[in-house]
Hints:
Layout: E1 9-17, H1 20-27, E2 29-30, H2 34-41, H3 45-62, E3 73-76, E4 89-97, E5 102-105, H4 106-113, H5 122-134, H6 153-162, E6 177-181, E7 184-185, E8 189-196, E9 201-203
Antiparallel strand pairs: 1-4, 2-7, 3-6, 4-8, 5-6, 8-9
Helix pairs in contact: 2-3
Amino acid sequence: MDNNIKSEKVRLWTRQDIRSLDQLKEEGIIRIKEEYLKEKFEDISDYILELYRWFNIKADKIIPKPKGVEFPVWCSISEENMLRPIPDTIVYVLEVDRSEIIYFDGSKWDYVLNHLYIPKDKEDEEAYNKKLEEKGFKHGFSFIDKKTRHFYPTERKIVMNSWMRVFEIDEWNIFKVQANIWQIKKDMIKDIIYYDEESRLYNK
């Protein structure tokens, strides 16, 4: 496992709307609010927020959510794989106590976003697909869809139970592993990376 996970303080990178600087100045803390996510995701916000709420409930059992926090802050665990700043955004370089970080597998989160079963391994995936075929199902995402999920309570439970594997890190890989924290406190911020309009690159 990477030494990064063992250290008391861990460096993380998170891209946020540049207006978060105002929240930091006024409140001394940055928190992700539902209204921000609705603005970001627009037409698909209801779809995304339902999944984020599921994540909230499960993540809260790993590290309790502070009072007043709505949604977590999504972070990268490496500068190489961080989201680069784009217009109207900045990247906060953070140092966070290990006890405040919820690690998860971003590649597995893609399964959640697509309403799919997360297999334990290749063998489990093949067994699950075989069961779907035996039951006459062409795919599994309809088990979670609001319009159809009431037809498949058992299958829905199987899929959603598998989603807990998103918190299981099978391989410590900077391209897969991501991190969440519940809020950005002022003393966590060690640097801010701004977007450079002229060069269309980012700089410190």
